[in-house]
Design goal:
The mean pLDDT is 93. The radius of gyration is 25 Å and the shape is globular. It is built from 19 helices and 11 strands. The longest helix has 21 residues. The protein has a domain of 189 residues: Spore Coat Polysaccharide Biosynthesis Protein SpsA, Chain A (Alpha-Beta Complex), CATH 3.90.550. Helix 2 links the parallel strand 2 and strand 3.
């Protein structure tokens, strides 16, 4: 039976590494972990799983570090993972069987990113409800999938390319080696750590800019810069790099077209985005983000009724994507159709009851419209569904309304509930003190 090596690069991943290695300890024959300068317990954790540990002096080149991990592998096949990823046991057999097939030299696998709510955009994808087939990631309600080449034969000269957003695919393309798609998932939890992701976005953007400066005519480098700029919400750079990328390729990816359009829209260039969105839709006519972004351009250019008609059609196809409901509510608000906007968001939370962002949008709109009682009622409904969400603000809204109605004891109960989840929330603490002063003597 062919042997399988795990190849990883890590730095200060004590928090995540154990989950990753535990998920593949019964799948791989060896674990190769190259450390790029950890100062926490990462190395001890790797050693506890029997990993072969290598060291690499970081030089701002992800491919160089990855290639060191490939060099240390001895298996017939290599599985590439990051510390904040995992492989569910349901897919172990599929991966092993793929390694036994003689035709393919490498496989693409689904990279599943998990999110706490449905309001996120990930490049050109809207997050969708998690079907929760796998134990890995089952506690998260939303996810978005991408394809990545992560399983391959250990062939002579095998290497990654690119200082950032490093890729194995060019190695196989240059040699006309056959690749396949494996119906298996790599589960990625990194997007859940919002602060860490934000810091990475800034750091990676600088690396992507440096890579382009070294070879501006490289279409892959321009693509990497465009995608990284979009992640960092640097829209001017997104547009510049996206335009350069499109000039260098004959058939741009749908992702490139949509990200360029997104950057143009975020800069207020709504009309310029439309041709790129139409090209993307010509390739994939039901792409939810491209459709919804086309709707937004139409609305900003004054074609609100056409935009609404198109969006209604998209929602019929994709009713469980929260982002689309928010776009619809925004369209209605543009027309001062406040009651319909509220009704739309109520329907949205009925269909997507686990989405905190939708609940918050509804509650804030009702509060802004002076609908105190409905806002409090919906905040209370949201808390029953998502007791840790709302950041304490939902608890304040409910408790303040109860105080206003004279229900002091009930208000105190809500405040105590809020403080169990948000013990340092200053607003909750102040309102509890006020409610205590108002509490009638027994």
């Amino acid at each position: 039976m062919p042997t399988l090596s795990l190849a990883m690069i890590v730095k200060n991943e004590e928090k995540n590494l154990g989950r990753c290695l535990a998920s593949v300890k019964d799948l791989v024959d060896e674990m190769v972990i190259v450390d790029t300068g950890s100062t926490d317990g990462t190395l001890a954790l790797a050693a506890s799983y029997g990993a072969k540990v290598g060291h690499f002096t970081w030089n701002d080149d992800f491919s160089a570090a990855r290639n060191e991990s490939l060099r240390l592998c001895t298996g017939d096949w290599i599985l590439v993972l990051d510390a904040d990823e995992a492989v569910d046991a349901l897919d172990h057999k599929k991966i092993r069987e793929a390694c036994m097939k003689s035709h393919f030299s490498a496989y693409f696998m689904a990279l599943r990113n998990y999110f706490a709510d449905g309001g996120a955009l990930v490049l050109d994808q809207l997050v969708r409800p998690n079907d929760k087939v796998y134990a890995q990631g089952s506690k998260f309600d939303y996810c978005a999938d991408f394809q990545g080449l992560r399983l391959c034969r250990r062939l002579p000269g095998l290497q990654f390319e690119g200082r950032i957003h490093e890729l194995l695919l060019p190695y196989f393309q240059k040699r006309n080696l056959p690749t396949g798609t494996l119906d298996a998932v790599i589960h990625h939890f990194g997007k859940l750590d919002v602060e860490r992701e934000a810091a990475k976005a800034v750091r990676y953007l600088q690396q992507a800019k440096a890579q382009v400066a070294s070879d501006p005519a490289n279409q892959q480098y321009q693509y990497s810069l465009m995608t990284q700029a979009a992640v960092a919400r640097d829209w001017a750079t997104t547009v510049t790099a996206g335009t350069a990328h499109l000039a260098l390729v004959k058939r741009p990816k749908t992702t490139a077209l949509i990200l360029l359009a997104l950057g143009l829209q975020e800069m207020g260039r709504w009309d310029e985005a439309i041709p790129h969105l139409n090209r993307a839709l010509a390739a994939q006519e039901d792409h939810p983000l491209a459709l919804s972004r086309l709707v937004m351009s139409l609305a900003h250019l004054g074609h609100v009724e056409e935009a609404q008609r198109r969006l209604e059609g998209i929602l019929r196809l994709h009713p469980q994507i929260p982002y689309l409901w928010k776009v619809m509510a925004d369209l209605l608000l543009r027309q001062n159709r406040f009651a319909e906007a509220v009704a739309t968001l109520k329907e949205a939370v009925r269909i997507c009851p686990g989405d905190a962002d939708l609940w918050d949008t509804l509650i804030q709109l009702e509060a802004r419209l002076g609908q105190g009682a409905p806002a409090a009622a919906d905040a209370w409904a949201a808390l029953r569904m998502l007791p840790t969400a709302g950041g304490g603000d939902w608890h304040i809204l409910v408790a303040a309304f109860l105080l206003k109605e004279g229900n002091i004891l009930e208000s105190q109960s809500v405040l105590e509930l809020g403080l169990t989840h948000h013990p340092t929330h200053e607003g909750l603490l102040r309102l509890r003190a006020l409610a205590g002063d108002l509490n009638p003597p027994r």
